[in-house]
């Protein structure tokens, strides 16, 4: 009786097989994130193919599951994790301080450049105004010189006229006694002498004169 019961119990028991270790869902997500970051760096030419494979080897992506589990468990160990968090905070603080210093230096450089550009523009405008004044001054000087030349010319002409005037007056004075007929009134022709009378007429004229005397 007992033999039958033992046989039945033995047949009902299922053989329990050893389960293969598997990564938890959290570790699988971490592996996916690591691969994504590595691929982005490779696609951006930040790292080359050799560096890409070295990075994946570093996170145990191609290792067996037991090795990967050990890697994650050691990484998330309480003590080491605290150290990693502290290092991360220090790194971020230093980087932010450096970024602020760079931003301030860039701002100062920009202000200095703007100030220099403003000063250069003011200097250029002043130089342009000075050039315009010089051109205007040169034009005025040239105009003054031309006026002086014209005045000198007029003076010379006037002086020459004054020197020539006396001789003309003398000539006029010398010619005052001479009546110069105008071109408009023609000179009258001289009256011709009377034609000689004939002898008979002369005799008659003489007789007439004697008769009157008597």
Characterization of the model:
This protein is an all-alpha fold and 214 residues long. The protein has a domain at 21-76. It is built from 6 helices and no strands. The chain has helices spanning 2-12, 25-43, 49-58, 65-75, 78-174, 199-213. Helix 2 (25-43) packs antiparallel against helix 3 (49-58). The longest helix is centred in the middle third of the chain and has 97 residues, at 78-174. The termini are far apart. Mean pLDDT is 75; it is low at 7-11 and 167-176.
Q: Tally of extended strands?
A: 0
Number of helices: 6
- Helix % is over 70%
Note the main sheet: none
Shape: rod-shaped
Strand content: under 5%
Structure keywords:
single chain; 214 residues; mainly alpha; 0% strand; rod-shaped
List the helices and strands and how they pair.
Blueprint: H1 2-12, H2 25-43, H3 49-58, H4 65-75, H5 78-174, H6 199-213
What would a concise description of this structure say?
By secondary structure, the chain is an all-alpha fold.
